Amino acid sequence: MTGNAMYRTDDELTERVERFKTGFEHAVRGIAEVVQGKEEQIRLALTAVFAGGHLLIEDAPGVGKTLLARSLAQTLGGVFQRVQGTPDLLPSDVVGTEIIDPETGRLRFRPGPVFANVLLADELNRASPKTQSALLEVMEERQVTVGTATHEVPSPFLVIATQNPADFESTYTLPDAQLDRFMIRLSLRYPDPEAEIAMLRGHRDLRGPGKVARAIPEAEIRDYQETCRRVHLSDFAYTYIVELTGRTRTMEELERGASPRAGIALMRAAQVRAASEGRAGVTPDDVQDLAPAVLGHRLVIKPDFAHGSFTAADAVAKAVRAAPTASSSGWWSA
């Protein structure tokens, strides 16, 4: 069964979902003109954006991580800031610090790059663990505490972080608490031959990649996010998400499974996936398709299994197979 007639919803929500679907596809096409051959990853990235989550892009150098992050920032408009992860980057270089005002002689807060709508933390895992941890508060609570004062960051607020694989030189492993704050992790992988040829043609005259043509107005972003939050979930949908994340916590291969925060992230992402396809309600496929990108980076494999062939993707697939799905009637009932 397909179509909005399945959902217990009003005409207003149906219209809003259709508007969001149109806007989502427009954003995908705009970014795809710059980041070629990566439509699946672009859709995942935008899912994190409209679900109000943060995005982690992991892959080898030179495959377009920063280009995708910049293109997302251009799509969202607003204030954009960038920090480059280096071993000597300090927490105050990221969140800001207190300085003495020469005119008054009093302490004054000087905001850091996090006071933006979009923060690109490039090669975050090259920064020291202390500096990485400086992002924990702002990613979760949208505020920064310096000294005794708390400062709120602008809204909407999105952290897009890139990181190199852990086996690269001069990298530090991101702490589990920070990984858990990223809604989605994606990998770009190497482009296919056609996309790489198009990339070469685009760089032939030294102009490099273009820019996204249109930024989405801030008010429109807020409206899209609110639309996605209103997408319907049945009682079984809630139960299924809890069952799925719970399976990872009892898996013998895992030292640590998905947190309750992971379940919230999976729910929010599934709502965006449904709306982006013009549906006002979440389906099992929405949850299952997004589970690898939302859950995979949060799972810790036991050392006895980590050196074998068992991966986080295997753990998610195992949880999906084990969690019971329902009949159509069971899923759609409110």
Automatic annotation (TrEMBL):
Stored Pfam families: AAA_3, AAA_lid_2
GO molecular function: ATP binding; ATP hydrolysis activity
Domain ATPase AAA-3 positions: 54-184
CDD domains: AAA
Domain ChlI/MoxR AAA lid: 247-308
Protein name, UniProt field: MoxR-like ATPase
Origin organism lineage: Bacteria, Bacillati, Actinomycetota, Actinomycetes, Streptosporangiales
